[in-house]
Amino acid sequence: MGEKLFMQGNEALAESAIRAGCKFYCGYPITPSSEIAEYYAKRMPEENGVFIQAETEVAAFNMIAGATATGNRAMTATSGPGFSLGVEAMSFMAAAGLPAVIVDVMRPGPADGDILAAQGDYFQVVKGGGHGDYNTIVLAPFSVQEMADLTPQAFELAEKYRNPVVIVSDGMLAKMMESVELPEKIEQKKNFDWTLTGAKGRKHNVITTCATGPEQWEQFNLELQKKFNTIAANEQRWEAYQIEDADFIIVAFGSVARIALSTIKKARENGLKVGMIRPITLWPFPKKAFAELKDKDFLVVELNAGQMVEDVKLAVPDKERVFFYGRLGGVTPTPDELFNKIRELYAKNNQ
Amino acid sequence: MKHEVIFSGIGGQGVILAGKLLCTAAAKEGYTVTLAPAYGQEKRGGRTSCQVVISDEIGSPVISEADLILVFDEKSLEDYENKVKKDGYLLINSSMINIEPKRTDIKVVKIPLNDVANEVGNARTANMVALGAVLKYFDLISLEDMKQIMAKEMKSSIVEINQKALQAGYDYVG
Amino acid sequence: MKVIYERPKILTDAYFKYCGGCGHGLVNKIIAEILEEEKLQEKTVIVWPIGCSVYADKYFNVDSICALHGRAPAVATGIKRNLPNDNLVIVYQGDGDLVSEGMSEIIHSAIRGEKFTVIFINNAIYGMTGGQMAPTTLLGQKTTTSPYGRKEEESGAPVNMAELIANIKGCYYSERVAVNSPRNILATKRAIKKAFNYQLEGKGLCFIEVLSQCPTGWGMKPLKTLEHVEKEMLKVYPLGVFKSPEVKNQ
Amino acid sequence: MNSVKINFELCKECEYCINFCPKQTILKKGERLNKKGYYPPEVVDIESCTACGTCARVCPEAAIEVYKDVTL
User: Fold this and answer.
1) Nearest-angstrom CA–CA distance, A57 and A65
2) How far apart are CA A81 and CA A28, in angstroms?
3) What is the ipTM of this complex?
4) Cβ of A75 under 8 Å from any chain C Cβ?
5) Number of CB pairs, chain C paired with chain D, less than 8 A apart
6) φ and ψ of A282, to 5 deg
7) Is the dihedral of CA A189, A195, A200, A205 positive or negative?
8) What's the rounded mean pLDDT across residues A8-20?
9) In tens digits, what is the pLDDT along chain B, a chain of 174 residues?
10) D3-67: CATH architecture
11) B92: enclosing H helix or E strand
12) For a disulfide at A286, which of A88, A236, C142, D62, Cβ 3.0-4.6 Å?
C-alpha cells in the first residue's frame, strides 16, 4: 500500500468502493458517470461480486435498496437526470433505513444539460427532491484523493445511521486524473440485527415504511426526525482555509472550491485577505463553520444559479454580507476570473 | 513551481492521451499533477481538450493562463490564443492550421504534426509528435523517461511507432 | 383427532385487512401453507407491494420488505442476488402495481431471468386506491375512472401478463390460475409450489398470475364474484400453463 | 365426532364455506355479530361432517380449522 496511482476520479471512486467491500453495483449508463459502471462491470467477476446494468435509474436505485436490505454494501452512480428518476427510492431508503451509497455526477440542468462541470443538483440532493420529510447525507469531495477517501466513509456513515448517503461530483472531478493513494482493502463488518436473510434462529425482520394509522405514522416520522437531527448535530464537515485573518471568505464546494484554492493564493499575493470555507457535507450543512465569523464578507461561488446561497445566509451572523457568483451550463470560471470578482467586491465593500 | 499546459484539438486526435502520458510521467517524478479533460457530447469530431497542471501543491485544475498551449486545429487556435501567458508558448499544428495568431507577446512555434507523423509512417501518431515537441520546452521529463512510460502504458504492438513519432516531434523543434 | 386443516403457524394472529371474500386472503394463506409444509420459513424473504397487500408483512412470521409502487421486482433483484441460492425470494404484486407502474421492472426482471417467484394478483381493478381502471380491467367494465365502461379505442384492451411474460426467454415458468373454487384453489397451490421448487433449483423467473375476486371493487357480494371470475374473467384470461419445462412446443 | 372450529372474530362473512360444503347442511349463516360487524357461520350439523376440509381451504381468513375423529 501507499503506492500512488495516477487515476481518473470516477475510477478511483469505484476502486475505493470495491476496497470498502461494496461488491454490488447496478446502474444505468449516463455521462459523465459511466466509467463507474464500466469499472464495476470489469472488476466484479474478479471480486465475485455482482454488476447489473439496470433498465432505468428507477430500477437501479430500487435494486440497491433491496441489496442493502440483506446487509451487503451496494452502490449506484448516475447524473442529474438519472438522479431525478431515483429520488422516489431516496425517499424510500431514508424512511426504510437502507444504507445505500449513491454517486451523483452532476450536470448543469435543468432537463438534459451539458456533461461538463456543474453543480446543478444541490437542491435535488440537499433539499430532498423526493416526497416527505427526509434527508440524506451528502458528501462533496474536491479532488480525486478525496473521492477515494470519502467513499469508504460514505458506507460507514450510511450503516451507522441506516440512511442513504450521496456523493456528489461533476464532469470535472469525475473525469479529472490525479495522483491518488487508494484506501486499504477491508472486509465489511456485518453485525446488523435488521437485515433480511431468512428468519433463521431469530425473530423475523420486517422493513416497511407503512404504519397503520395517523398516530403510528406520526410516531414513525418523529423517529425519522430524531435520526436526521442526530446526523445534523454530529456529522457537519468542512475545511477552512486561511479564515483567521480573512475579511473576505469564499464559500464553495467540489470542483469550484478547487479552482478557488488558486484564487486565494493569488488574492493573498495581491494583498487581499481572502479565505475559504469548503463544505464537505452539503447536508448536514456545516453551520458550525460560520457561527463565529463576525465582520466578514462572504462570496458564495457555485456552478449553478445560487442554490447554496440561502444555506450560507442562514448560517452566517449577517446575511446582508453574503454575495454570489456563479457560472452555468458547464462553463467553469478560471482562478483569475474569481480573483477579479473578489477584487471588485472588495473595493466596493471597503469604500 | 507550477507548469500549466493545454492541449486542444478534435475528438479522435488523441489529445487527451498526450496529456495523460505527460501527467503520468510527471506524477512518477513526484509532482502533484492534475489532468482535466473536456469532451464534446459527440464521440468523434467534437472539441476535445485537456488542461494539465504540474505543481508542488494542490490547486486549481482550471488554468487562467497557460505556460504552453498546443492547438491541433483552427478552432482551437481561435479559442485558446488568448489563454497563453505573456512570453508563453503557442504550438500550432501547421498541417491543419492556415491562419495566423494575432498576438505578438507570445512565442509561436509551428509544427506540421500530421505531416511529421506521416513521415514517421503512421498518420495517427500526430499526438505523439506533439508530445515530443512539448517535452522540449520542459526540463521536467526526459525523452527516455517518456519512452519508458509509453512502453508501459501502450499496447506493445504500437509502442515502437509511437516512440518514433515522439522522437520526431522532439527533434523537429530542434 | 387428526388434523385436516389448521391455520398455518407461519401466519401471525393479525387480522387480514382485506375485504370479506377477497382473493388476497386466499393467496396469502396458500403461500403460508406451502412455506410451512416445505419448511421454508427460515429461508424466505417476501417482497410486498403497495396496494391492498401493503400490510401483508404483518401477517407473516417471515422476513419481509414492502417495496414502493411497482418496484418490487427491482428490490427483489437486489435481495436475491445478495443471498445464497437456497434462499427463497417471493415477489407479490397486484395488477395496478405490476402492470401499470411496474411494467418496466417486471419485464426487465424476466429479461434478466431473475431467479425469484412472482405472484401476480389480477383482479382487473385498482383495489386500495378505490376501484379505478387498471390495464387489466375488462372491456365494458365500469370502474371509478371508466364510469361508462372501459372502451378499447380509448384505453386499449386488457393485458394478458402470463402470456406476455411467457414470451420472454428469461421466464422459466408461467401459469395462470384462479381462486374462485375449491378445485382452482388447489390448482393455485400446486402452481405456486412448483414455482418455489423451480426457484430452489436455480431456474429463471417463475410467474404465477392469480385471477382474484374483488367484491368491493366490483360492487358484488363475495359469492357473486366467484361466478364473475368464472363467466367473465376466464373468457379474457384463460387458465393454463403458458411456459413450462414440462410442456413442449409452446 | 369430527370438529369444525371457526375463529369468530376473524370471519368476514363471505359465505364461501357455506357455499362450498359438499354436504350443504353442516354450516349455516350465523345470527351473532362479531366485533367487526359480521355474522360468522354456525356449525349446525356436525354429525354429517366428513371432515373433508373444504370449508377451511376456501376460507380467505384462515379462520376455519377442521379435525377428523379417528377413534373407531
Assistant:
1) 12
2) 11
3) 0.93
4) no
5) 82
6) -85, -35
7) positive
8) 98
9) 899 999 999 988 899 999 999 999 999 988 999 999 987 655 666 889 999 999 999 999 999 999 999 999 999 999 999 999 999 999 999 999 999 999 999 999 999 999 999 999 999 999 999 999 999 998 889 999 999 999 999 999 999 999 999 999 999 997
10) 2-Layer Sandwich (3.30)
11) strand B84-93
12) A236
Kindly list the residues from chain C whose CB atom is less than 8 angstroms away from the CB atom of residue D59: 29
Cα(C20)–Cα(D34) distance, integer angstroms: 13
Angle formed by the axes of helices A57-69 and C103-112, nearest 10°: 70
Mean of per-residue pLDDT scores for chain C: 96
Question: What sign for the dihedral angle of Cα A90, A91, A94, A97?
Answer: negative
In 3D space, the residue among C98, C115, C97, C117 whose CA is nearest the CA of residue C106 turns out to be C98
Nearest to A176 among B32, B36, B64 (CB): B36
Residue B139 has a pLDDT of: 82
For residue B11, the domain's CATH number is 3.40.920.10
User: Whose CA is closest to C176, among C227, C212, C216, C129?
Assistant: C212
The residue segments making up the domain with residue B17 are 2-172
- Whole-angstrom distance, CA of residue A12 vs CA of residue A152: 12
- Give C230-240 pLDDT, tens digit per residue: 999 999 999 99
Q: How confident is the model at residue D71 (pLDDT cuts 50, 70, 90)?
A: confident
Largest CA distance in chain C: 59
DSSP B35: E
Residues 6 or more apart whose CB falls under 8 angstroms from that of C11 comprise C28, C29, C32, C59, C60, C61, D62
Q: Which domains does chain C have, with CATH numbers?
A: 23-243 (3.40.50.970)
Domains in chain A (CATH in brackets) are 4-189+224-233 (3.40.50.970), 240-349 (3.40.50.920)
* N-terminal to C-terminal alpha carbon distance within chain C: 47
Render pLDDT for C156-211 as a digit per residue (tens, 0 to 9).
Answer: 999 999 999 999 999 999 999 999 999 999 999 999 999 999 999 999 999 999 99
The count of domains in chain B is 1
- Nearest CA to A88 out of B38, C67, B34 is that of C67
Global pTM reads 0.95
Closest among C40, C163, C143, C44 to C92, alpha carbons compared: C44
Q: Can you give the pLDDT at residue B43?
A: 60
- Is residue A172 within 8 A of residue A116, CB to CB? The reply is yes
Phi (first) and psi of residue A84, to 5 degrees: -55, -40
CA distance A96 to C22: 28
Please check whether residue D9 is in contact with residue D33, taking contact to mean a CB–CB distance below 8 angstroms: no
Dist CA A257 CA A34 (whole Å): 24
Taking an 8 Å cut-off on Cβ atoms, the answer to whether A62 and C65 are in contact is no
User: Is pLDDT at A3 greater than 80 in this prediction?
Assistant: no
Three cell numbers, residue C240: 393454463
Partner C, chain A 33-72, Cβ-Cβ below 8 Å: 50, 52, 54-56, 58-60, 62-70, 72
Residue D43 pLDDT: 97
User: What region, left, alpha or beta, does residue A50 occupy, with left being phi > 0 and alpha being psi -120 to 50 degrees?
Assistant: beta
Q: Domain limits of chain D?
A: 3-67
Residue C249 has pLDDT above 70, yes or no: no
Mark whether B and A touch (3+ CB pairs within 8 Å): yes
Rounded to whole angstroms, how far apart are CA atoms A338 and A249? Answer: 12
Mean pLDDT on C104-123? 98
Distance CA C62, CA A36 (A): 36
Residue type at position A307: Q
Asked if residues C208 and C121 have their Cβ atoms less than 8 Å apart, the reply is: no
* Nearest-Cα residue of chain C relative to residue D59: C26
- Give me the residue label for grid cell 416527505: A132
For C22, the grid coordinates are 377477497
Amino acid at A206: V
